[in-house]
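Lecture notes, continued. The same structure-token format from the folding unit now serves as the input rather than the output. Read the line below as a description of shape only.
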């Protein structure tokens, strides 16, 4: 009997030690942001099955100076969705009402909608106002590359900026083979999906993101980065130590010597680029 008890205590001690090691390893993984552990945020290939809203022909923009990539399909409302809503892989989103005029004189027009997952407390109109101010920026935004933008509340549109919970973000992005791990945003086809956690919390430099960004600032980076993918831009690295981080750099995982930056262009109107991401 005593031998049995002693053996049981030994096994419990060993199990506790193994669990402690596993916990330590998990903690290390969570804080090693510079490693970008298998997390992605962009996919150009159309998912299968196709998402809802389903694609329809898109207005053809003039040739772009951006890297070559097939234009995103223009999604339209699912026939089963109620007026003012769209369904994306079975999840209902409420479209922001109204829209904007054409923002910018550029000949390359992108029409977009803004939608918030049903049931969230974030107002679609308020989220749209933030997105409008970012894409409409005439000094440092994508308009500097010759793009014009117009928000609409019904099809046709080129992409939809969708605010969704971390779980829904993972689900939609996963349909494109993208792993967002409950942490980051993504662009899959016409879906520009913004993780609610990042929208509301930003990053803190430790458990969420390698560089601290307050929520308002991180929203600028998230929208510019993911819409940048929709415009044909891929990931790049830090161009030089002490320089501004390109907006198409995966800044969530570290700046690698660059300085924080959330806009495509600097204050002198120069595009902030970097070497192709490895």
């Amino acid at each position: 009997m005593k031998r049995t008890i002693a053996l049981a205590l030994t096994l419990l001690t060993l199990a506790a030690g193994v669990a402690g090691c596993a916990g330590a390893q998990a903690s290390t993984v969570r804080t090693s942001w510079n490693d970008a552990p298998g997390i992605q945020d962009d996919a150009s290939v159309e998912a299968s099955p196709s998402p809802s809203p389903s694609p329809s022909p898109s207005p053809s923009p003039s040739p772009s100076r951006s890297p070559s990539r097939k234009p995103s399909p223009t999604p339209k409302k699912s026939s089963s969705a109620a007026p003012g809503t769209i369904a994306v892989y079975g999840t209902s989103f409420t479209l922001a009402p109204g829209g904007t005029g054409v923002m910018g004189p550029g000949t390359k027009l992108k029409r977009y909608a803004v939608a918030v997952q049903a049931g969230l407390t974030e107002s679609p109109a308020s989220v749209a106002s933030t997105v409008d101010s970012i894409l409409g920026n005439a000094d440092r935004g994508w308009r500097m590359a010759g793009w014009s933008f117009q928000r609409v509340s019904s099809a046709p549109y080129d992409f939809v900026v969708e605010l969704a919970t971390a779980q829904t973000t993972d689900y939609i992005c996963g349909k494109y083979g993208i792993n967002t791990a409950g942490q980051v945003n993504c662009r899959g086809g016409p879906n520009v999906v913004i993780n609610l956690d990042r929208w509301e919390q930003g990053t803190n430099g430790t458990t969420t993101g390698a560089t601290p960004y307050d929520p308002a600032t991180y929203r600028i980076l998230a929208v510019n980065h993911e819409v940048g993918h929709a415009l044909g831009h891929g990931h790049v690295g830090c161009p030089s130590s002490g320089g501004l981080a390109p907006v198409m750099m995966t800044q969530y995982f570290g700046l690698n010597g660059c300085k924080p930056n959330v806009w495509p262009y600097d204050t002198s109107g120069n595009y902030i680029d970097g070497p192709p991401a490895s």
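Point for the exam: The CA atoms of residues 235 and 248 lie 5 Å apart.
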